[in-house]
Amino acid sequence: WALDQAVASVTTGAGATTIVIEDRGNAPMPARLVITRANGQTERREVPVETWLAGARSATVTLPAGGSAVTKVEIDPEQWFADMDRSNNVWTQ
User: Fold this and answer.
1) Residue 88 near residue 6, CB atoms below 8 Å
2) Most exposed among 16, 22, 29, 81, judged by the fewest C-beta atoms under 10 Å?
3) Is 82 in contact with 37 (CB distance < 8 Å)?
4) What share of the chain is helix, strand, coil (3-state, %, to 5)?
5) What pLDDT digit, counting tens, does each position of 44-66 carry?
Protein backbone atom coordinates (compact mmCIF):
# COMPACT_ATOMS: atom_id res chain seq x y z
CA TRP A 1 0.00 0.00 0.00
CA ALA A 2 1.26 3.44 -0.86
CA LEU A 3 0.68 6.74 0.87
CA ASP A 4 0.33 9.66 -1.54
CA GLN A 5 -1.31 12.87 -0.40
CA ALA A 6 -1.27 16.05 -2.47
CA VAL A 7 -2.19 19.72 -2.31
CA ALA A 8 -4.64 19.75 -5.22
CA SER A 9 -5.53 23.44 -5.14
CA VAL A 10 -5.48 26.63 -3.12
CA THR A 11 -7.97 29.35 -3.99
CA THR A 12 -8.67 32.67 -2.35
CA GLY A 13 -12.13 34.16 -2.54
CA ALA A 14 -14.10 36.80 -0.73
CA GLY A 15 -13.41 36.25 2.93
CA ALA A 16 -11.74 32.83 2.80
CA THR A 17 -8.98 30.65 1.40
CA THR A 18 -9.93 27.12 0.36
CA ILE A 19 -7.35 24.33 0.32
CA VAL A 20 -8.16 21.00 -1.33
CA ILE A 21 -6.14 17.97 -0.24
CA GLU A 22 -6.29 14.75 -2.24
CA ASP A 23 -5.58 11.21 -1.10
CA ARG A 24 -4.04 9.62 -4.21
CA GLY A 25 -2.75 6.46 -2.56
CA ASN A 26 -4.40 3.58 -0.77
CA ALA A 27 -2.80 3.85 2.67
CA PRO A 28 -4.98 6.17 4.79
CA MET A 29 -3.12 8.51 7.13
CA PRO A 30 -3.98 11.95 8.52
CA ALA A 31 -2.90 14.89 6.37
CA ARG A 32 -1.01 17.30 8.60
CA LEU A 33 -0.76 20.77 7.09
CA VAL A 34 1.42 23.76 7.86
CA ILE A 35 0.02 26.93 6.32
CA THR A 36 2.19 30.04 6.01
CA ARG A 37 0.82 33.54 5.55
CA ALA A 38 2.52 36.55 3.95
CA ASN A 39 3.25 38.04 7.38
CA GLY A 40 5.23 34.92 8.37
CA GLN A 41 2.55 33.54 10.68
CA THR A 42 2.04 29.77 10.46
CA GLU A 43 -0.87 27.64 11.48
CA ARG A 44 -1.44 23.92 11.58
CA ARG A 45 -4.50 22.06 10.40
CA GLU A 46 -5.18 18.36 10.03
CA VAL A 47 -7.44 16.28 7.83
CA PRO A 48 -8.20 13.32 10.11
CA VAL A 49 -7.62 9.76 8.93
CA GLU A 50 -11.34 9.09 9.40
CA THR A 51 -12.00 11.28 6.34
CA TRP A 52 -10.13 8.82 4.11
CA LEU A 53 -11.43 5.74 5.93
CA ALA A 54 -14.97 6.93 5.13
CA GLY A 55 -14.09 6.72 1.42
CA ALA A 56 -13.35 10.36 0.59
CA ARG A 57 -10.64 10.97 -2.01
CA SER A 58 -10.41 14.71 -1.31
CA ALA A 59 -10.98 17.03 1.62
CA THR A 60 -11.41 20.78 1.88
CA VAL A 61 -9.83 22.99 4.53
CA THR A 62 -11.26 26.51 4.69
CA LEU A 63 -9.42 29.37 6.35
CA PRO A 64 -11.15 32.66 7.09
CA ALA A 65 -9.40 35.68 5.61
CA GLY A 66 -7.03 36.80 8.31
CA GLY A 67 -5.72 39.98 6.76
CA SER A 68 -2.60 38.23 5.47
CA ALA A 69 -2.65 36.07 2.34
CA VAL A 70 -1.71 32.39 2.34
CA THR A 71 1.65 32.01 0.61
CA LYS A 72 2.49 28.36 1.28
CA VAL A 73 0.72 25.12 2.14
CA GLU A 74 2.74 22.02 2.96
CA ILE A 75 1.66 18.51 3.89
CA ASP A 76 3.81 16.82 6.54
CA PRO A 77 6.82 19.17 6.46
CA GLU A 78 8.50 17.12 9.20
CA GLN A 79 8.28 14.05 6.89
CA TRP A 80 6.82 11.81 9.57
CA PHE A 81 4.87 9.81 6.98
CA ALA A 82 6.34 7.86 4.04
CA ASP A 83 4.60 9.74 1.23
CA MET A 84 5.66 8.22 -2.09
CA ASP A 85 5.61 11.53 -4.05
CA ARG A 86 6.58 14.59 -2.02
CA SER A 87 6.72 16.81 -5.12
CA ASN A 88 2.96 17.45 -4.79
CA ASN A 89 3.02 18.09 -1.04
CA VAL A 90 3.84 21.80 -1.31
CA TRP A 91 1.93 24.70 -2.83
CA THR A 92 3.49 28.17 -2.98
CA GLN A 93 1.98 31.38 -4.24
Assistant:
1) yes
2) 16
3) no
4) 10, 50, 40
5) 999 999 999 999 999 999 998 77
User: Residue 67 pLDDT more than 80?
Assistant: no
The answer to whether 29 and 62 are in contact (CB under 8 A) is no
List beta partners, residue 45: 33
Q: Is the pTM of this model over 0.85?
A: yes
Q: Is 24 exposed, middle or buried (0-12, 13-18, 19+ CB in 10 A)?
A: middle
Backbone angles phi, psi at 51, to 5 degrees: -60, -45
**What is the dihedral angle through the alpha carbons of 45, 50, 52, 54, rounded to the nearest 10 degrees?**
-140
